């Protein structure tokens, strides 16, 4: 089986000094490799193709066959890295906590330990504002809320 750390090393070489970064690499049985990328700005299909070609040039299929998928971390995917939280400050998010509760609002800050989410609510004509700091160890997942307003 192809070693995940070797794939990581090659992907980082391919990305170089760009603003692109690895979100996740999975190597499953049968050498089914999935590489998810993100960027501080944007990811294009050409970026994914370039990384695919780099990996294919580094690992011969004749030595060990594999199935490779390189794609961007989709908008429907939960955030996995602090860098993704920082990139998405200002966006509406839904945070599912370890206890199963959900807190939704605007992501306003993120650091190594926690995130801060702000929300306004209106109940019976009474408007309230709340900013909640949520430690990472209490977060099960955070996803962007997709709005077509």
Give keywords.
single chain; about 150 residues; alpha+beta; five-stranded antiparallel beta sheet; three-stranded mixed beta sheet; 3 helices; about 20% helix; about 45% strand
List low-confidence stretches.
none
Number of helices: 3
- Topology as a string of helices (H) and strands (E): HEEHEHEEEEE
Shape field: elongated
Mean pLDDT, nearest integer? 95
Residue share in helix:
10-25%
Oligomer: single chain
Explained architecture:
The chain has 149 residues and is of the alpha+beta class. 21% of the residues lie in helices and 43% in strands. It has 3 helices and 8 strands. Strand 4 and strand 5 form a beta hairpin. Helix 1 packs across helix 2. The radius of gyration is 19 Å and the shape is elongated.
How does the SSE layout of this entry go?
Blueprint: H1 4-15, E1 20-28, E2 32-39, H2 45-58, E3 67-72, H3 82-87, E4 92-97, E5 102-110, E6 114-123, E7 126-135, E8 139-144
Parallel strand pairs: 2-3
Antiparallel strand pairs: 1-2, 4-5, 4-8, 5-6, 6-7
Sum this structure up briefly.
The protein has 149 residues and is of the alpha+beta class. The chain has three helices and eight strands.
């Amino acid at each position: 089986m192809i070693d995940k750390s070797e794939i990581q090393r090659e992907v980082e070489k391919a990305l170089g000094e760009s603003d692109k970064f690895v979100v996740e690499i999975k190597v499953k049985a049968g050498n089914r490799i999935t590489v998810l990328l993100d960027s501080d700005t944007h990811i294009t299909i050409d970026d994914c193709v370039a990384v695919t070609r780099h990996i294919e040039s580094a690992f011969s299929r004749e030595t060990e066959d594999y199935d490779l998928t390189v794609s961007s971390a989709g908008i429907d995917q939960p955030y996995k890295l602090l860098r993704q939280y920082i990139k998405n400050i200002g966006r509406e998010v839904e945070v599912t906590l370890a206890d199963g509760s959900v807190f939704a609002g605007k992501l306003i800050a993120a650091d190594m330990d926690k995130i801060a989410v702000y929300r306004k609510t209106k109940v019976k004509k009474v408007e309230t504002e709340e900013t909640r700091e949520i430690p990472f160890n209490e977060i099960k997942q955070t996803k962007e809320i997709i709005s077509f307003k």
